[in-house]
Structure formats: structure tokens, C-alpha cells
């Protein structure tokens, strides 16, 4: 398929359908885009002298052919609308130019699927730059949308990598864009918020993934991979791969005795002097902790105790053990020819591989790996020395642990003896307190009993005093009538007799009892005072036997 012309007809269709298509001015820029080179991007390193790298190759790149194929052959049930559009830009809110991140290939097409009308825009970037471009577009989305455009943006579960769904609202018009990435290809599926964009995008992605498989090196590339490209905004880093350096097995250090002979052969041979290492015990790495238990001596109480607490012995700390084995290998990142390139690779957009000086790289690798090996060997010698140091420290720790264990046994015995004595004193103090309490109860009882007896005796004495009653008067006999000395002057008058009145008998008064008599005897007078136990025996002084 030849180079497609950007006609007035296609431009009008794109601008009318989405409002996001722009023409790129300049035939030079157009040529660079169509051959897969990033326009207006200055590489960080000088291009190789190979003339083929700088001469335009007008054959279509795999990126152009792949995206053209997938847009011309949509998923089943999709109907193409209009022509294939070229030199398109990303839709709002990703439409703002990204300095140094222009796509090498940009194609779009409009489709219908059922009741949905959608446009699919595909942008292919140079090797590794697709991840950077999508990351920067997402970061600038709200700024790019502008203050007059409402925007909601969030991640979705696929398809592809870095999938996001953006919904814009401006002037009462709402639109949605689902974007995702495969390697260096960014796809935008635009439509109405009511359209099932994620389902439509997954259907399109199936065909895209299948077509990218033979031509795209890594469809899951990351922004970190972009630094393998001279056009990375993060700066260029030489591609490297891991190389492993290994040394031979390193044994534990020897503890065999050695003789130190420093005198001439003619002199008598001195007694062999064993190496200090010869006396070391070859314990495991790490060796076990030898402290049986940690003890805390009791504080000396106020009462007499025995035996005395032993002098303090610090609990020893075992030495830190080195690794059980020396490190025998290490990996280094060595410069490597980046023949395929990051992301979808150099060839995907028609780029040539970067210049690589194999001889210089070999020299660098050799020096780096030799240094790594020397360090491994030096570390192995240091490890052997650290093992000897550990064994020496462990021998001292072993003696310290034995002393501490003996001290701990003594402390445990003294703590036990002091606990028994303390229990005796606790029982004695409890008995004293109980006796004091009962004595107080008895004293209170006697006080109350004495008060009750005194009150009772007083009342009884009062009730014993009975008042004497007054004598009763005896009745007088009635007087006899005596005749009048002179007769009545009236013949009709009857003789009368004068009678004296008889007094009424006076009742005999009785003695009235006083209130509260007889006195009630208080019950406490018939009760016995509470008993008080004998004074408890003070614990004996253990120091006196």
C-alpha cells in the first residue's frame, strides 16, 4: 500500500466527526512520519556513519502496515464508515502536543457497531517511547482539557496496558475516550458515554494483538524500557544484560596446628608453636545460644533473709555469626548490543539499530567482570577471617555463659529461699493484723457492754423506788334527830329534827408504775466478749540458724 494523501475530503470528515484531527505542515515532517522517524526530535547521541540510517526509505514500516491492516479489517459486526484517515492527533483530553513525543504513524477510522458510532485512532511511536507518551498524556489530561471542559478520568481493567476511560463535557456535548497501549502503539476508542466502549475496545484489541505479535518485540513494555532509546525524555541509558561471575567453593578456615619457625636451620629447632586457630572449636554458623535462662535477683527485703544474694554477673551476648557460606557468585549489568530495541523495537517504525562498539563493550565487560571476581575472592578471604573471629568470640562467650548459668542457678536458689522467708513474714504480719483487729473488736464489745450494764443498773434502781399513797378518810355516823326545845307556834306545824350532812367516803389512792419499768435487760449483758488469739510468734532470724 502506497503513501496515502491527506485530502480535503478526509480532513473535513475527521474534523466534522471528532473535532480532533489536525494537519501536519511541512513535507519534511510528513516524510519523517511516514518512514517511522520522530519529527522534530533531536537524538541524544550522534547517528552512525552508515548512510542507510540517514537516507529515507520510502517502504512502509511494519507499524504503518499493521495499523492499516487492523483498521481496514475491523472485528466482526463492525462496519467501516468513510476512508482511512492519516496524520491524525489524539482526541481530547490527550490532543495537546507533547514536545519530543510525536508519533511516527497516526491513523484513524470511523466505524459503526450496532447502534454505536465510534472512531478508532491508533498512534505508533518509536522504539520504547509509547509508554512515555501515554504516561505524559495522562498526566497532562486535565490541563489539556482546559477550564471550560469538564473531565472525569480513571483507570479501567483492560484491554492492553495502562487502560483509562476519560469522559469530557463541554457546551452540553459529552464524549468518552477509552485508551490503552500495546508496546509503542496507543489506541483511542471514542464514542458516546452510553456506548460500551470497553467491550468495543477489547474486540479491536484482539485483532491488534494478533497482528502485532510477529512485528512488536515487547507489547508489555514500561517507561523504564524507554531509556534504551536516545529519544527518551528521561535520558538515554545503554542497554545492558545480567552477567554472572562465580568463584570456586570456599572452605571453612583451617584450625590445624602450624609451626612458627623463625630461626636459622643451624639453630636448635624450638618447640612447635601451635596456631591460635588450632585451639578453636569449629562450631556451627551460627552456634547455639548457651544461656539456659535469664534471672532477675529479688530486691533485698526489710526483714532478715539468708543466704545472701551472689554478686551480679552480666548476661553474656553471643557473637554475631557470619554467613554459613561465602558468597560465590554475583551478577553485573554489562553493556550489550540492543539489536531489537525497547518496546515494539527499532524495526517497527523503520528505525535502524543504534551503533554499538562491540570491541569497546567487550573491554568494558571484561574489566567489570574481572573486578567483580576479585571482589568475590577478597570477600571470601574476609569471610574466612570473620569465621575465625566468630569462633574465637564464641569460645569466650562459652566461658561467660557457663559462669552466668552458675550465677543464675544461685540466684534462683536464693530467690526461692527468700520467697519462703517472705511467705513466713507475710503470714506473721497477717496474724498480727488479725489479732489487732480482734483485740479492737473485743475492746469495743467490753466498752458497749459496760455502758449497757451501767444504764440497766440505773434504770433498775429507779424502778425500785415506789411512792407512798395518802390515808383515806373514815365516814362519820349520821346524828340522831333531837326534838325542838319549843313547840311550833303553828298548830299545824309538824315537829322537825335538824340532821347534819354525812361526808362521802374518799377512795384509797394506789401506787402508779414509772414509765419504762421494770427495766429491760440488754442482751449484751448475757453475751461473752469475743476471744483474742494469742500473740503470733515472730519468724526466727534465718541468719542465726
Describe the secondary structure blueprint for this structure:
Elements: H1 8-17, H2 27-35, H3 51-54, H4 62-72, E1 78-86, E2 105-113, E3 116-124, H5 129-139, H6 141-145, E4 150-155, E5 161-170, E6 173-182, E7 185-191, H7 197-212, E8 240-246, E9 329-335, H8 358-464
Antiparallel strand pairs: 1-2, 2-3, 3-7, 4-5, 5-6, 6-7, 8-9
Helix pairs in contact: 4-7
Describe this protein with a few key phrases:
seven-stranded antiparallel β-sheet, 545 residues, elongated, two-stranded antiparallel sheet
User: What's the pLDDT, averaged over the residues?
Assistant: 83
Q: Output the radius of gyration.
A: 60 Å
N- and C-termini, Cα separation: 116 Å
Task: Give the overall shape, derived from the CA principal axes.
Answer: elongated
Notes on the protein architecture:
By secondary structure, the protein is an alpha+beta fold. The chain has eight helices and nine strands. It has helices at residues 8-17, 27-35, 51-54, 62-72, 129-139, 141-145, 197-212, 358-464; strands spanning 78-86, 105-113, 116-124, 150-155, 161-170, 173-182, 185-191, 240-246, 329-335. The strands form two sheets. It has a seven-stranded antiparallel sheet with strand order 1-2-3-7-6-5-4, sandwiched between helices. A two-stranded antiparallel sheet has the order 8-9. Helix 4 (62-72) packs across helix 7. The radius of gyration is 60 Å and the shape is elongated.
Amino acid at each position: 500500500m502506497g503513501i496515502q494523501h491527506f485530502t480535503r475530503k478526509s480532513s473535513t470528515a475527521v474534523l466534522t466527526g471528532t473535532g480532533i484531527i489536525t494537519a501536519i505542515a511541512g513535507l519534511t515532517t510528513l516524510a519523517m512520519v511516514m518512514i517511522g522517524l520522530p519529527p522534530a526530535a533531536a537524538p541524544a547521541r550522534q547517528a552512525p556513519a552508515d548512510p542507510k540510517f540517514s537516507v529515507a526509505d520510502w517502504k512502509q514500516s511494519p507499524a504503518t502496515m499493521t495499523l492499516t491492516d487492523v483498521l481496514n479489517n475491523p472485528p466482526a459486526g463492525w462496519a467501516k464508515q468513510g476512508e482511512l484517515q492519516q496524520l491524525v492527533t489524539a482526541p481530547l483530553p490527550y490532543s495537546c502536543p507533547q514536545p519530543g513525543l510525536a508519533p511516527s504513524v497516526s491513523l484513524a477510522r470511523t466505524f459503526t457497531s450496532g447502534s454505536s458510532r465510534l472512531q478508532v485512532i491508533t498512534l505508533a511511536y518509536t522504539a520504547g517511547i509509547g509508554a512515555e507518551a501515554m504516561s505524559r498524556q495522562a498526566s497532562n489530561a486535565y490541563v489539556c482539557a482546559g477550564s471550560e471542559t469538564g473531565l472525569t478520568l480513571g483507570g479501567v481493567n483492560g484491554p492492553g496496558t495502562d487502560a483509562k476511560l476519560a469522559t469530557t463535557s463541554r457546551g452540553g456535548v459529552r464524549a468518552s475516550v477509552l485508551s490503552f497501549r500495546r508496546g509503542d502503539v496507543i489506541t483511542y476508542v471514542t464514542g458516546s458515554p452510553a456506548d460500551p466502549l470497553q467491550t468495543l475496545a477489547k474486540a479491536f484489541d484482539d485483532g491488534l494483538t494478533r497482528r502485532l505479535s510477529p512485528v512488536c518485540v515487547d507489547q508489555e513494555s514500561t517507561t523504564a524500557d524507554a531509556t534504551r532509546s536516545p529519544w527518551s525524555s528521561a535520558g538515554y541509558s545503554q542497554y545492558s544484560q545480567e552477567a554472572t561471575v562465580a568463584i570456586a567453593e570456599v572452605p571453612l578456615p583451617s584450625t590445624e596446628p602450624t609451626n612458627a619457625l623463625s630461626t636459622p636451620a643451624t639453630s636448635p629447632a624450638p618447640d612447635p608453636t601451635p596456631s591460635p586457630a588450632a585451639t578453636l572449636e569449629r562450631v556451627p554458623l551460627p552456634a547455639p545460644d548457651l544461656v539456659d535462662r535469664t534471672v532477675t535477683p529479688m530486691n533485698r527485703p526489710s526483714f532478715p533473709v539468708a543466704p545472701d544474694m551472689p554478686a551480679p554477673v552480666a548476661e553474656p551476648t553471643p557473637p554475631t555469626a557470619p554467613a554459613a557460606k561465602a558468597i560465590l557468585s554475583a551478577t553485573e549489568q554489562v553493556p550489550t548490543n540492543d539489536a531489537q530495541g525497547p518496546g515494539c523495537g527499532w524495526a517497527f517504525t523503520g528505525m535502524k539499530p543504534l551503533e554499538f562498539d562491540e570491541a569497546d563493550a567487550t573491554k568494558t565487560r571484561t574489566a567489570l567482570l574481572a573486578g567483580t571476581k576479585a571482589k568475590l575472592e577478597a570477600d571470601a578471604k574476609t569471610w574466612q577471617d570473620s569465621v575465625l573471629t566468630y569462633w574465637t568470640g564464641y569460645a569466650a562467650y562459652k566461658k561467660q555463659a557457663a559462669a552466668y548459668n552458675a550465677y543464675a542457678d544461685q540466684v534462683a536458689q536464693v530467690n526461692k529461699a527468700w520467697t519462703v522467708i517472705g511467705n513466713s513474714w507475710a503470714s506473721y504480719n497477717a496474724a498480727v493484723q488479725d489479732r489487732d483487729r480482734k483485740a479492737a473488736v473485743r475492746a469495743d464489745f467490753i466498752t458497749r457492754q459496760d455502758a449497757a450494764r451501767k444504764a440497766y443498773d440505773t434504770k433498775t434502781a429507779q424502778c425500785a423506788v415506789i411512792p407512798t399513797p395518802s390515808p383515806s378518810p373514815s365516814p362519820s355516823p349520821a346524828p340522831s334527830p333531837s326534838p325542838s326545845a319549843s313547840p311550833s307556834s303553828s298548830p299545824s306545824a309538824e315537829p322537825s329534827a335538824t340532821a347534819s350532812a354525812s361526808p362521802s367516803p374518799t377512795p384509797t389512792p394506789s401506787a402508779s408504775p414509772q414509765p419504762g419499768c421494770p427495766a429491760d435487760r440488754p442482751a449484751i449483758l448475757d453475751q461473752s466478749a469475743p476471744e483474742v488469739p494469742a500473740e503470733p510468734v515472730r519468724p526466727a532470724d534465718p541468719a542465726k540458724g
